[in-house]
Amino acid sequence: MNLNKISIIISIFVFFLLGALVLKNTSTKKAEKNNSSYPTATPTTVKTNDAPIITVIPADKTNNSLKSYIHKHNSGFPTFSIQYPSGWELKNEIRNLGYTESSTLSFIKGDYEVRIYQAPVDGGWCIFEGDMPEGIYQDLRNVPYMQIESGIGTLRRVKSAITYYSDSKNMMSFTFCHKNNAQHNNYTDYSSTTSIGQITYTLPTQYDESTLLEMDNIIKSVNEMK
User: Fold this and answer.
1) Taking Cα atoms as reference points, which of 129, 110, 143 lies closest to residue 188?
2) Beta carbons of 75 and 101 less than 8 angstroms apart
3) Which end of the chain, N or C, is more open, meaning fewer C-beta atoms within 10 Å of its C-beta?
4) Beta pairing, strands 125-127 & 137-139
């Protein structure tokens, strides 16, 4: 094979190689152009709840004096004042719900806790006597209760039927119903949410009567502030 034939073969090979490279480059640009019409997905982090704001006033066991606390209005509930023995710890937790805030005001002494919870919730009604009407009602007609006259009106403390086990102790709770001045469906009604929020007690099943009395006195001292 002479040199002229070898040169021709090399030229043809280079021609086809360059053609293949040009074709590949063109296809890549077309693919990039087509893909550019689709937006790139960017992950978005939505923060729904901020960390709660917690205020704590430690218990002072050196004396038995009363302390006063003013709880500012929250979630449509009014500002109120409350008194509690200095031997109890006060804890107030404000949590951001996104559209509003919730508040949990607690008075704690060992295994005993008084809790006032404020948030936009649908309350029901408590029936202690008579026939059960239609609607959202708690049937408390055969349930014992303790009636308490407080600064916000008449309250009835009701023992919950549910007990639970916590920290090697059997625990129970009380809930409250608040008497309304108006009648609803021809009944003298008690609502399950009071004018200052939902009130609950948490305490051991074998509770101390004197400590329960302290809890009742805390709730008795509540007064709405105009």
Assistant:
1) 129
2) yes
3) C
4) parallel
Neighbours of 45 (CB within 10 A): 4
Q: What is the DSSP letter of 197?
A: B
Which residues, 6 or more positions from 203, have their beta carbon under 8 angstroms from its beta carbon? 111, 112, 113, 171, 172, 173, 174, 211, 212, 215
Task: State the DSSP code for 77.
Answer: B
Which single residue is written with the structure tokens 């023992």?
159
Q: Which residue has the tokens 């936009």?
A: 120
Residues 184 and 89 in one domain: yes
Q: Give me the tens of pLDDT residue by residue for the chain, a chain 226 residues long.
A: 454 544 544 454 444 444 544 444 544 444 444 444 433 333 433 334 567 888 898 998 887 789 999 998 777 889 999 999 999 999 999 888 777 788 999 999 999 999 999 988 767 888 888 777 777 788 898 899 999 999 999 999 999 878 887 777 899 999 999 997 655 555 568 888 999 999 999 999 999 999 999 999 999 999 998 7
Domain CATH number, residue 144 = 3.40.1000
Q: Which residues contact 167 (CB under 8 A, 6 or more apart)?
A: 111
- Measured distance CA(224)–CA(53) in Å, rounded: 23
How many domains does the chain contain in total? Answer: 2
